[in-house]
Specification:
The complex is a heterodimer of chains A (224) and B (343). Chain A is α/β, with parallel strands linked by helices. Chain A is 31% helix and 28% strand. In chain A, the strands form two sheets. Chain A has a seven-stranded mixed sheet with strand order 3-2-1-4-5-9-8. The longest helix of chain A is centred in the first third of the chain and has 11 residues, at 14-24. Chain B is an alpha/beta fold and 343 residues long. The chains are: A alpha/beta (224), B alpha/beta (343).
Chain lengths: 224, 343
């Protein structure tokens, strides 16, 4: 993700975030991991926006050769200590500091929505993936982000949102996105869409106005 | 205001269960309990219709079934869903629709999202502490290894295990929480986790997880010809694993419920087999809902839930006496036991 204040905000609560990750996010995790219906043995794996490296550790222990890219230097510093068998790089999704055609699988969970330039991240993922490689991502649902816009609710504008997560203990500020930013012509030129799921994970995500609304979506795609 | 459907003395209930898929073992036992209650009520002159929907252990199907039951069958009381992660997604819908929901196999300490309209029939995992403590003392366990799922279900086991360790002086020598559904890509991870657990020389391992992880674990312990005692949820010994695990060289112990002799006798007479873990609770769930409905035929679900959660309400059922607290949990139950898996 882009190296700006939006991504650096995790430096302020990286410990709270990490401690709540496993339990509070379990609905999203369930949807995400159910999509990984193949072996990671011997595969080159990249996690874009890897946070504290928890997922990288899972992928590595499952046989993957794993690299994590993350803009928060606090997260990267801690991840390197906690999971020395993975490689962690400080970097942003819009300009992944790695060569073309390197990876068999790219994962990204609850990260791409932090970017102000989602199409650039999707292009970068396509660039570093080998042909036939798989891309599995989970991001905040655009409908949720529309509801979380701070002012002037406009679905098509990248307004700043406030997400109160983990029962309101953390307030995250991120730009909102439309679906067209994820699934545009560039995406379909590079990928075949294999699966799409959307669901909710209250109260890990705030339930707005007592409405039942999607909070995340999962995409599985194959690099052409 | 929505009212209970109680016309021509026939009571309609809905049931959303995982009749197929990974939670089916628990769901089938629950359905048996429901059917037995319906039969007994009919013999006493009370007709009860139960509209079943099989969610195939899928949370999206499960939640969509709520709407089907309400719109197509005017149902305002549901028995189900089967497992804790489904309840998390149920809760916001149940809050919105105000449907009384009796979950036979789950307690509030294993879910993230609750609703005031949900009643939990199962005992909390924290109450496994007593049975576990007895087991640890009786078997002179000094070192405990723990492998759990990294979700609220798994986490709800940690506290009773820690408490038992403190009370008995046993040491927890290994803890790993595996992400749910890692089995599809993570058999190597599960194998390494088991290896690490064994390297810490535990006297026993406590395991709790899901279908895929259970398959991997089952194959691993047989392949490695292990003989370490294992304590597990019943899930480990369901389906094909039941026969496979008869070859396990060590002892397997399962968290179980204590059934009343009356229920066992009645169940065996009807089905010719032993009840499964939550059959008796499902039986009592029907009885409680019917009892409340008979006594309050024109009362809203808001009022019904208040009546059930009132401290003066109690139901003496075949699985025990039900008194519900404000979280919807039964208050005075002590049913958990640890039984040896009969090979």
């Amino acid at each position: 993700m882009k190296d700006n204040s939006i991504n650096k905000q995790y430096n302020n609560f990286d410990d709270i975030y990490s401690n709540n990750l496993a339990v509070q996010d379990s609905t999203g995790n369930r949807f995400f991991y159910q999509t990984i219906d193949f072996s990671l043995e011997g595969k080159n794996v990249l996690d874009v926006g890897c946070g504290d490296g928890t997922d990288c550790n899972f992928y590595q222990k499952s046989g993957g050769i794993v690299t994590g890219v993350e803009p928060s230097d606090n997260f990267v510093k801690n991840a390197r200590i906690k999971y020395p068998d993975c490689e962690f790089i400080v970097g942003v999704g819009e300009k992944i500091p790695l060569a073309d055609n390197l990876f068999d699988v790219v994962f990204s969970k609850y990260a791409i929505q932090t970017s102000p330039e989602v199409p650039s991240v999707m292009s970068e993922v396509a660039r570093v993936l080998k042909s036939g490689g798989l891309f599995i991502m989970l991001s905040k649902h655009p409908f949720r982000q529309f509801l979380e816009q701070n002012a002037d609710k406009n679905y098509f504008k990248n307004n700043i949102t406030t997400s109160n997560i983990y029962d309101g203990r953390i307030a995250l500020h991120e730009p909102s996105h439309s679906f067209g930013e994820y699934l545009n012509k560039g995406f379909f030129d590079n990928f075949d869409l294999l699966d799409y799921k959307e669901w909710y994970d209250f109260p890990a995500s705030e339930q707005l106005g007592n409405a039942i609304h999607p909070t995340f979506f999962v995409i599985k795609a194959r690099r052409r | 205001m929505l009212k209970w459907l109680y016309m021509n003395s026939k009571i309609s209930l809905g049931s959303i269960l995982s009749i197929t898929g990974e939670a089916s073992q628990d769901a089938l036992g629950i359905r048996d309990g429901i059917e037995l209650a319906v039969k007994n009520l009919k013999e006493k002159g009370q007709d009860v219709d139960v509209h079943y929907i099989d969610d195939n252990s899928d949370v999206v199907t499960s939640v969509r079934a709520i709407d089907t039951l309400i719109r197509e069958h005017n149902i305002l009381a549901i028995i189900g869903p089967t497992w804790a992660f489904q309840v998390d997604s149920f809760a916001p819908i149940i809050d919105q629709e105000k449907v009384i929901t009796f979950v036979p196999a789950v307690a509030s300490d294993s879910i993230i999202k609750n609703s005031e309209y949900i009643l939990f029939g199962a005992e909390k995992n924290i109450h496994k502490e007593s049975a576990l403590k007895d087991f640890v003392v009786k078997n002179k366990i000094k070192k405990i290894g723990v492998i759990l799922s990294q979700d609220k279900w798994g986490v709800s086991h940690l506290l009773p295990i820690k408490n038992v360790a403190i009370q008995t002086g046993a040491e927890i020598v290994f803890v790993e929480q595996l992400i749910p559904y890692i089995s599809s890509f993570g058999s190597k991870y599960i194998k390494e986790t088991l290896d690490h657990a064994l390297q810490s020389n535990p006297d026993m391992i406590i395991w709790s997880g899901y279908e895929g992880e259970a398959n991997v674990l089952c194959d691993l312990i047989l392949e490695k010809e292990l003989s370490i005692p294992l304590i597990s949820d019943q899930l480990l010994t369901t389906g094909e694993r039941k026969n496979k695990l008869k070859k396990y060289k060590g002892e397997l112990y399962l968290f179980s419920n204590t059934f009343s002799q009356d229920f066992i006798k009645m169940f065996q007479s009807e089905y010719g087999k032993q009840p499964t873990l939550y059959s008796d609770i499902a039986y009592d769930a029907v009885m409680i809902l019917v009892d409340i409905l008979q006594k309050n035929p024109q009362v809203s679900s808001e009022q019904i839930i208040k009546i059930i959660k009132n401290k003066d309400y109690q139901w003496k059922g075949l699985s025990g006496t039900f008194i519900f607290d404000q979280l919807g949990d039964i208050q005075n139950s002590s049913r958990w036991s640890i039984n040896k898996f009969e090979k």
